[in-house]
Amino acid sequence: MFFRVAVCLMLLTAGCDHKPSESAKVQGKLKIGYVLHGLNDFTQVIKQGAEDAARAEGVSVDVLGPAGFAATSDAIAMFEGLTQKHAGGLVVVPMPAEVWVTPIRQATEAGIPVLTANVTSPKSTARSWFGQDEFGSGGILAAELRKFLAAQNKQEGRIIVGMCAPGLGVLVERYEGFTNGMAGTKYEISKPYDVNTENMANYGAWENLAAANPRMVAMVGLCSMDLPNMAKLKVRTKGQWLIGGYDLGRETLDAVKAGVVQVVVGQHPYLQGYLPVVALARHLRDKQPLPKGWIDTGTEVVTRDNVDSIYGRETDEKKQAQWYADYVAAHFADLNAVAKPMPKSRN
Amino acid sequence: MSDQTAREPSIAWRRLRAFDEIGVVVALLTVCALLWLTARDQFIQPTNLLQVARQASSYGIMAVGMVLLLSMGEIDLSVGAILTLVNIVTAVALRDGVPMPLAVLVGLATGAACGLTNGLLGVLLGIPIIIVTLGTMSIFRGLALVLSKATPVGNFPKDNLLFNLGSGNLLGLPTSVLVMLGVGVVGHVMLHRTPFGWRAQAIGSNAQAARFSGIPLPRYRVAAMTIMGVVAGIAGVMELAFLQSGSPTTGQGYELYVIASAIIGGTALAGGSGSVVGGILGALLIAVIRNGLVLLEFSAYWGTVVTGVVIIAAVAIGGLVKRQST
User: Fold this and answer.
1) Measuring CA to CA, which residue among A27, A45, A140 is closest to residue A93?
2) 3-state SS string over A201-229?
3) I need a labelling partner for A46 at 20 to 30 A (CA). Which of A36, B4, B168, B250 fits?
4) Scanning every residue of chain A, which has its alpha carbon at the shortest distance from the alpha carbon of B142?
5) Ranked by mean pLDDT, which of A168-172, A239-243, B249-253 comes out on top?
6) Which residues of chain A have a CB within 8 Å of the CB of B235?
7) What is the dihedral of CA B62, B67, B73, B76, to 10 degrees?
8) Nearest C-alpha in A relative to B250
């Protein structure tokens, strides 16, 4: 009896002791896991990119994410689940960066290559990061907004900035980039106000800010849910302030078309889903080296002048896939060649 | 004479203490007075006050249902998720060309079905409602994500009565505030003027005694949960009408604010009594605090702390006054 139990335990232990990448191979299709920081309209585009890349490369990808925004413990549980599921490689949006150091280290120690997307975890063992320079994007937003303010002859005044998740590194970097981009001007940049991630509370927060600052010259939102709500508020209150912010949702682009929102910064979330899956697939299947460092997916500025050329791509999945296939071929054919050194973290 | 003068304030004080809503009223008046003193120019503007009332309406509408449930000794953790699902279902129906009145009915029926499911699961499986709704909260929110593909649903015609009224005013008040008041009146009458309400409170006060007196507890639990579902559905439709797009992020975390509104308003967590008026005032207090934090330019970090402190203070004041009366 004791012998049988011992043999069973040995067999079970042996079953647990294989390399995940080997398991991924014997299943036929290579398996890649992708863990998002939340499920929303922004991450839906990342998911779409990851799934399109998996189809193009002939691998399978599981894209998971917690229902809440930046619900870190849920995301880590999903990441660990994918590690146990023997994914050949993992991509993660490590938000916030610090808490992802250990899970990423454990995965890499288990032989699973880990790449980061959207944001990175600088102190982790993740090999590369696919995303935009958040600090730089804040500066770009500031520069574009200044042009619109100057065109309206508004050389000074208060600019209100809202942060949907106060303290979140990526948003702090955007804010710091924005204030840096406004340095040397006569504009007074507010501290970042908590505007909440929940949709109705977000609208209410912007409504309160507008009531408290009747003479502001502009409002800036750092999250994807901000701009549609700011636009509705501006229309309803006949506000004269300008609006700038992030992410290219349909409602936001409609508001840009209507001239309600002046400038939006996009960060190519599709590429943040697409490129790391391509890199992992080629590494696992063809033994191509993984890119090391930062793959800058770029920052895109959308105003009324160019919104029509963006609109079709952002509201039609087929057009989006085709546009990005051409874009990847033109700009990201060799990921190792475009990789840059990781930027130093500012926070 | 001296005896009488000594007794008069005592009677007035005793009457005052009889109000379940004393804590929330004191807290609301205190916060409003502080804002009147510190941010008078902005706070007392009619536009600002109407906005605050409108911001309170979602929690306020749902607090009416929650007061009924808490009076029965039950808590529904899925109310925020029901609101989200109704919000998305109605938006998807409109996007797919369902006529507006029918889409609204589909939304409300979804809310009722969610509530009914909660009640039936609790009764048939013998599981406490709080645990059932802990599970269904995830199910309903997940269904909303599946239906919406985690993206806002807003590409439908908006030139109709629902959106014109939902985003506008009626009789000088935001429509959602009128809906909150209407739901409040119905809830108040149901809780305090009908056998259903009396029996619900009797169940919350002593379930065993209620059972022995012949009250069919399972039927009442299912009915109360269904009412809660409908009320959350009304809030979901009103949010859709106001924001003019359905969003899977709508309603996240509402359950705690709705429960807080009811408790702040003087409804006993242990059951047995409840105040619909207090629940609505509790929602108003939360909205006033949020408004005040912005007007007074509190930092994003300290604002969260202050909200918690005022909520605890409101409940503590109510408890303190009541303890003095015993």
Assistant:
1) A45
2) HHHHHHHHHHHHCCCCCEEEECCCCHHHH
3) B250
4) A67
5) A239-243
6) none
7) 10
8) A199
